Structures are given as structure tokens and as C-alpha cells.
């Protein structure tokens, strides 16, 4: 892959994108990067496919076009609790491709579904018993037998639900993660983590349960979970108290006792009533190498070496200027926003979102960082993105934006990085932006 | 108790107090007010959960933890004890005090929602006036370390603009507080038949039945262990079967903080008896 320094040096171009439907709630590239799936608040999944490279085009890399759209989840009603179950897709995870069809898992608050997306570009013609329209032929009219022939047709992409994994979560599902054995996956809600086999829908193993005997004693919840990319017995889960636990499924059936416990000691000088809330981890992601993991809390992104539990090896400040605004952010509930984070293919850079449609990228090698904006108004198609800067105090320079003018309704919670190339997908409320490296 | 518009002076005729401690005292009292305002905000957040969709458990837990932190700090520096004591008067037993607090808060909730905030702050801030004076006195006399601590915390927590905002609002709050004070009434019977907003106990209780005393029939318990209790609460409320009052906002603090050792806060016996009644009713329904 190209060195990421090129990306950090502001060589991203903006590909115009017409997708503006419901609020996007998850974005995920598949293993090859050819497909990009988005889930939205209305329970819909939209999959984009990259165009094949063509010598005729000026760009050597293709653009992403809509490949398939389907309704994954519908709103439901829990009669016992008299509460609605939202159809919003919380997470999508792709399965590695094993044949011509593509498979993905999509989850709302309570149910996970396995979808098969397959192409159909041929149709059988010349049936004996029915017409081309499908009408049954009069048996007396049939005088000869013929063999149906496969004829080409316009490409049709069909999505069909192959498995429905339901009724295993009392609380809201926040994560799903496919295991490296490609046979099992885990799903995590606020208090429990279950392990499923992809073929079996009527039962799952509960591997973590942090629900206290008395719910009034509840002080900590699970916020995210992920399987290790190579070791199929290892997974991690993060908590609302800023801790990460690494568990080994070989140790016991119920992994309530962790193998490793990651927590950074608190800085007593910065303690406030909001310390716990901003330490709550909203996302955890293993590096592709499997040697590191990254966590996102409200103000920062931390990279941890799996061999060192007492502190992270790297800490990146996303929007430290918000620290003095925590009370207002608590009042308008923004302090509870759950930002995600992602690695690039080579693990040399990380990316996460912020407010005002800003997103941040950090180069781990050079320690340089950049702030970019995902908005139509400020970007011309195929133009380079201009870096942004937030003015934290004193005189505001031209092109800088002051902290008080930030729009906290424009939040970038979901971002994804192509597994091999410098192509990124950024979800800004109900718009999807795709940026890629400029080619000279 | 306090005449409208006048504040009790920090020093009654004593001109020896230095400027430093005066500033420190003012800072300390505005910190108390801000802390109280954060507490009120948090309690409202816990109550105003969306009724249609299940509330976000992570958010509720974080807010509840914040409430407990504030309560622990207030207990530690004596403000909490004074709030409950001054409220209900000395000589009452702890449980009576709790009922009074809870019922008072609950009877407020029967009014329109907008009033709720000012009324809660009435309960808190009114006593804060007393508290502030006492802490002010203690700050000036005793060690300056705690003085510095408070000031330090303020610097990190709050913006300067928010500080001045609170001071400006003090006058407005005082007026509304004294006005609504006259309507105060203790009414234990009313709460049973009306709907009470969700509190933390009910927010968490939405999900699971509360396990308090051992159930008379353990098999029955097991059968219903995953059934949540809010459904039955609604049912019993509507049919008026339950006579005991529900948990009010301040009960959350007591039930959520088992670790602190303040002698004035005791777990609510009334809440436990509610659950026993519920179990009893369940037995009857299923047994027949």
C-alpha cells in the first residue's frame, strides 16, 4: 500500500455522492474493499460496489455505485415491556467471500440477520410447461421436448435473509464481530456477550455476563466487543468505565474472568464530575496485525499494545478544546455520543470523527495529524480537501473556526477505511462521502 | 424563613475577614450551587426517558454514577446530611425522613413537567442557603486546604461564563423558590393511583425484576426471572392495587450508593415491602 504520508499531505479528493436517505448508522468495507455497506436508521442496508478500473478513465481507480438496497430490519413492538424495538441497524459485518455470493451480518438492537447477496445475470429460457411470460402452456399443444437454455439478462442483485439470530439479547446489541475461524461470531449487548455458530440460530453460548444480581447495583456496562483478527479464542470488550478486558475462550466456558485488563490510571489533577463519562469507551478495534488495539473515548483515541496493560502506547487528542465545554455537552447529551475509529490497511494511520462534520486522521509514524471536513458546501468534486483548524483561544486566524461556532448536530460517528488502499468512507448524518487518494 | 431579596451576610459586623477567604467563600458557595444544578440536571435526565423506546442503558448508568458521585461528595462535606436533616427536622427517624423527602418530590411530579425543575431546585437550593452559610463559616475558620481544593475543582469543571450565569440566576431562583414554597403538601395517598415518571430504579427495573428478599417459591422466581416488572407496575398502578408510594428521585441516590457510610441515609424499607407485595400478588395470580 502507498505510504499514508501522502494522504496526510492533503491529497484526498472528493467523489460526489448522491446518497442521502435516512441517518446512516454504520459503514463497513468488505474484506477486498470492493463492496461498501451502509446501514441506516430506517433499517435499510445499501451496498455500493466499486467500478472496475478502466483504461479509458482518467482516474485509475473506480468510483462506488449503488449495488444493492434492501430492507434488513423492520420496527417491532415488545408487548411485554410495551416498548418499541427500533429497526435502526447498529452494526454490519461482512463475512469473507467463499463463493460467488457475498454474505453479511446486520444487527439492530435485538436481532442479527445473515444476508446473502447474489447476482443473477442469466435466465433460463425455453421451458416446456410454461411460456416466456410464465403462463402455463396447454399440455395438448406440446408436441416436442426441448432443453431450456441459459440466456443473458440484465444484472439483478438479490438479497435474501439466510439466518435470523433472535431472542438472545435482553439489552441493546452494540457490537457484532466475526471470528477468524469464519464459523462463529460474537454479539454483545450492554451486559452480555454471546457466541454464535453461523449455521445455528436457535441457540448461542453466553460467554460474558456482567449483570449484577441486583440491577440497582449496576454501575458499568459493556460498550463494544471484538474478536481477535487471528486468534480465534481471543476477544476483547470495553466498558463504560474506560477499561478493556481481553478474554481467552479456552480458559473457561464463561469468560467473566479476564486474561488481561487494560486501564490507564486516572490523572488526579483533571478529575471532575465528568471524568467517568468521558472515559467511557465508545469503540474498540484490533489492528490488522493483531498486535495492537485502539480505543475511542470522548476526547481521545488510544493505541494499546496487547502486551502492556497498564497504559496505552499512544494517545491522540481528537478535540481537546471540548474539555472546557463538558458541562454544556452534558446538558445537550452530546457527551454521550459514541464515536467510532478505524485503522488503515497497514496500521500506520488511524481515523475518527468529530463535530461540525470534521474528521481526524493521525499518522502513527510521523505523529502528524489532520482535520478534514465532510460537507458538500466546502468541497468541489474532484478537488483536494483543505485541512481545517479549530481556534481554541486568542485571535482567530482566517479560515479557522472558533469552538463556539462548531455545529454539534453535525457529528461524524461512523468512518471506514478501505482494507488495502487509501479510500475512506465517512458518514455525515444522512450523507455518505467517499474520499480517495489523488493519483499523479 | 428568609425574607425576599435579602441574603444573610457572611460576616455579621466582623471586618477582620481577609479578602482571600471572602473570595474563597464565594467561590465555594457558587461551586455548591453549580454542583446542585448538575445534580438537578442529572435527576431530570434520568426521569425524562423516552417512553416509547427503551432508554439507553449506558447513558442511564453514566448519569446515575454522576448523581452518586455528587451525593457522595455532598455527604462527605456535610451538605447532604444537612439537606435531609434541615428538610425534615431533627428528631425524626431516618426512614420517616426518607419517606417525607420522597413523597414531597413525588407530589411535585404530579404537577406539570416544567415546574419540576424549579421545585427540585427549591428543595435543594433553599437548604443550600443554610448550607452555604455553614460551610462558609467552616471554610473561614478551619483549614485553607479544602478551600484550595474546591477552587481547583471549579477551575476544571466549569467555564467562567457558566459561573457568572449561575450567579445571575440566583435572584430569579430565589423568587420562584419562595413563591412555590407555600404549596408544599405531604400527600401519601395520592401517588398510588397516578403514574409516576421513571426513576433510575425503574429505568433499570424496566429490564429485570428486582431480587430483594428470597421468594417464597423459588421455582416461581426462576420462571419469571427474566420477566421485567414494569409491566406489572403499570398494571397495579392502574388498578390501584398497590397502596405504597413508589420510589421518588432521591431514593435513587440511596439505593445506588451502598458503599457510603453516612448514618442518615438508610435503605428504604417501604420499597422492599412493595416488592414483597408484588411477589404475593404474582403468587395469587399464578397459583389460581
Automatic annotation (TrEMBL), chain A:
Superkingdom: Eukaryota
Repeat recorded as keyword: yes
Keywords: Repeat, WD repeat
Listed InterPro entries: PP2A_PR55, PP2A_PR55_CS, WD40/YVTN_repeat-like_dom_sf, WD40_repeat_dom_sf, WD40_rpt
Classification via Gene3D superfamilies: YVTN repeat-like/Quinoprotein amine dehydrogenase
Quaternary structure, from the entry: PP2A consists of a common heterodimeric core enzyme, composed of a 36 kDa catalytic subunit (subunit C) and a 65 kDa constant regulatory subunit (PR65 or subunit A), that associates with a variety of regulatory subunits.
Family according to the record: Belongs to the phosphatase 2A regulatory subunit B family.
Protein name: Serine/threonine-protein phosphatase 2A 55 kDa regulatory subunit B
Native organism taxonomy: Eukaryota, Metazoa, Chordata, Craniata, Vertebrata
Name of encoding gene: LOC109070679
UniProtKB/TrEMBL annotation, chain B:
Top-rank taxon, per record: Eukaryota
SERTA domain mapped to chain residues: 31-78
Annotated Pfam families: SERTA
InterPro entries referenced in this protein's UniProt entry, alphabetically: E2F-SERTA_domain_protein, SERTA_dom
Biased composition (Acidic residues): 181-192
Region (Disordered): 164-201
Annotated GO CC locations: nucleus
Listed name of the protein: Cell division cycle associated 4
UniProt organism field: Cyprinus carpio
